[in-house]
């Protein structure tokens, strides 16, 4: 499977798209470079939520390895996203080219770093890594596959996936989430939420025995996308998704003007619920002096 990223990650093909080496190599030859920014954290989250799902061809019993290829320093928090993947048993190899930040590569990659971090001065030099990287990847897969894996989930659906996401008690700055847990309790839940029209995603990790969450400190009058993912020892189950808007802030009402004189007036209004201060602006009409 392969995804490219800049400010918006894009899946080029899934794990299940091609079934022969020739088809994969042909897809690589036809690949077109995607220029732009370097939001590595967003790209890693995309891989977890989109590319490493059963619907995209990820087999639950298979070892999960991810190779990150980057030529720059991330413009978001790559370390937090990488840690989430590593906590799920996904091994990360980090390859830097040209202006990549080696310290960031070492933060993102799995241990031992002498096997998982590589850095070259230019793209043509990547060919020098192919032989070593191939041997290391194959060896790691064999080592991990030989470990005893007990109680590995073998199916999705109700066994691994929560259902019935409900969003309630919506205010201008908060909302309450609740859901029905899957038949097989997860180790944790990962709740991701962000404004629908763009914004930095935030996430909360919950214990697997909890099936509700209060989201606070939200922006008023804003549509939010919410996702809930069950996290197991070796896999992330299918997520629940919802969308809803926070309420607008309440407004002051019934503005009245009284006690007029040659240089003053009194204003009064009905209070806005929850307001802690008011900003009053006035200017001469229609376009007179300064405010």
Automatic annotation (TrEMBL):
Keyword ATP-binding among UniProt keywords: no
Domain Fibronectin type-III: 161-250
Chief place where the protein resides: secreted
Chain ranges of the VWFA domain: 1-133
SMART domains linked: FN3, VWA
Subcellular location: Secreted, Extracellular space, Extracellular matrix
Keywords recorded for this protein, A-Z: Extracellular matrix, Secreted
Entry-linked CDD domains: FN3
InterPro entries: ECM_Assembly_Org (IPR050525), FN3_dom (IPR003961), FN3_sf (IPR036116), Ig-like_fold (IPR013783), VWF_A (IPR002035), vWFA_dom_sf (IPR036465)
Pfam families for this protein: fn3, VWA
Record flagged with keyword Ribosomal protein: no
Protein known as: COKA1 protein
Organism this protein belongs to: Urocolius indicus (Red-faced mousebird)
Name of the encoding gene: Col20a1
